[in-house]
């Protein structure tokens, strides 16, 4: 590092308390030897960000939201450059979670459920959903809704191809979430897959299932426009669950039997219950939609699970999903750019939230454009 580099100033969106947001400017410190500073180019707006804003997730305030960020290396410490093989200008995606890499869960590759419990990282309440950049990293407050992001030594960083447009690159994290769910369901060539919930991640799950060899994919949802869009992302058949009295029969009509794998991405307990009724005997049900900390789900214990030996497999976040996600986005296997329906400047975040919250104007995925 040169010590005479000009100070970086960053705009950032801060949620000081539940239900309020400020646009602030902050000075970005020089990275230490093992850290770097990322210039954020795009950050996707996720339904989770709205839940954070509303105070539903239990994260301590103040915070800077945003976990779907991509950008490039702005400044990098000497040790970080050597260890990571990165230099200024390299295009990257950074995983939000900061796993320890040492615990049993990390060593088996399930770093999304890292068991690190380091008191130096803050109160236990801050770590209900794992340790991550946006909540736990000194100095300052970090998150993707900002011009710059501090990236510490333990962060997992992925290189992005230089020709991948930033807007498409912004889908790296949601597609990684989709791939994790598909992997948890052990989707294999020839399998039949039902996805419940054609939100952005559900649409990407259909694509990820196809890319993992699924023979046929059925999308179950309630909004005709989203169901139609799912056919561009790998769904062979769609079922409107509000217009269909017996969804299981509709699945059998489409596939000739119930599905090998059902992936629930709707984020409501009723969809999780339904998932177990759409899977064949001995099949796999993946629960990937977040329903809220206090939600409970009920299954037909003997009827749906026991006597049919269903594997119920929760899938949390994106561990192991970034590599196939970047590969899929690079090859352009599906028209991923069609999912980015709206782009906003950071100053317009309030209107962006309004659009996403009320699902206005046919929004699928909205992104904040920090810089081109
Ligand atoms: Zn997200
Ligand atoms: Zn760990």
Automatic annotation (TrEMBL):
Instruction: List the Gene3D superfamilies hit by this protein, alphabetically.
Output: Medium-chain alcohol dehydrogenases, catalytic domain, NAD(P)-binding Rossmann-like Domain
Cofactor(s) listed: Zn(2+)
Chain ranges of the Alcohol dehydrogenase-like C-terminal domain: 200-322
Recorded hits in InterPro entries, A to Z, give: ADH-like_C, ADH-like_N, ADH_Zn_CS, GroES-like_sf, NAD(P)-bd_dom_sf, Zn_alcohol_dh
GO molecular function annotation: oxidoreductase activity; zinc ion binding
The residues covered by the Alcohol dehydrogenase-like N-terminal domain are 34-161
* Record keywords: Metal-binding, Oxidoreductase, Zinc
Which Pfam families has this protein been placed in?
ADH_N (PF08240), ADH_zinc_N (PF00107)
Query: Which family does the entry's similarity section mention?
Result: Belongs to the zinc-containing alcohol dehydrogenase family.
Q: What is this protein called?
A: Alcohol dehydrogenase catalytic domain-containing protein
What is the species listed in this Swiss-Prot or TrEMBL entry?
A: Galbitalea soli
């Amino acid at each position: 590092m040169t010590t005479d580099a000009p100070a970086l100033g960053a705009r950032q969106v801060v949620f000081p308390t539940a239900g309020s947001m400020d646009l602030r400017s902050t000075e970005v410190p020089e990275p230490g030897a093992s850290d770097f500073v990322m210039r954020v180019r795009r950050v996707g707006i996720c339904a989770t960000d709205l839940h954070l804003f509303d105070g539903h997730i239990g994260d301590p305030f103040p915070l800077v939201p945003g976990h779907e960020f991509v950008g490039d290396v702005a400044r990098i410490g000497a040790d970080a450059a050597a260890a990571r093989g990165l230099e200024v200008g390299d295009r990257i995606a950074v995983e939000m979670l900061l796993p320890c890499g040492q615990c049993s869960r990390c060593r088996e590759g399930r770093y999304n459920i890292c068991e690190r419990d380091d008191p130096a990282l803050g109160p236990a309440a801050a770590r209900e959903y794992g340790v991550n950049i946006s909540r736990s990293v000194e100095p300052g407050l970090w998150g993707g809704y900002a011009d710059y992001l501090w990236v510490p030594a333990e962060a997992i960083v992925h290189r992005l191809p230089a020709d991948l447009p930033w807007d498409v690159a912004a889908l790296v994290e949601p597609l990684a979430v989709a791939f994790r769910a598909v992997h948890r369901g052990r989707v294999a060539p020839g399998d039949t897959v039902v996805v419940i919930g054609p939100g952005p991640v559900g649409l990407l799950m259909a694509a990820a299932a196809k890319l993992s060899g699924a023979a046929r994919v059925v999308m179950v949802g309630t909004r005709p426009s989203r169901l139609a869009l799912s056919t561009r992302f790998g769904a062979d058949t769609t079922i409107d669950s509000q217009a269909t009295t017996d969804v299981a029969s509709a699945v059998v009509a489409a596939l000739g039997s119930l599905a090998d794998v059902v992936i629930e991405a709707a984020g409501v307990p009723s969809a999780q219950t339904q998932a177990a009724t759409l899977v064949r005997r001995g099949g796999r049900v993946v629960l990937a939609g977040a329903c809220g900390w206090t939600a409970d789900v009920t299954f037909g214990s003997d009827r749906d699970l026991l006597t049919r030996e269903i594997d119920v497999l929760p899938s949390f976040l994106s561990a192991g999903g970034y590599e196939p996600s970047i590969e899929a986005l690079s090859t352009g296997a599906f028209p991923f750019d069609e999912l980015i329906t709206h782009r906003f400047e950071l100053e317009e975040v309030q209107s962006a939230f309004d659009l996403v919250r009320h699902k206005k104007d046919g929004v699928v995925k909205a992104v904040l454009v920090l810089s081109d």
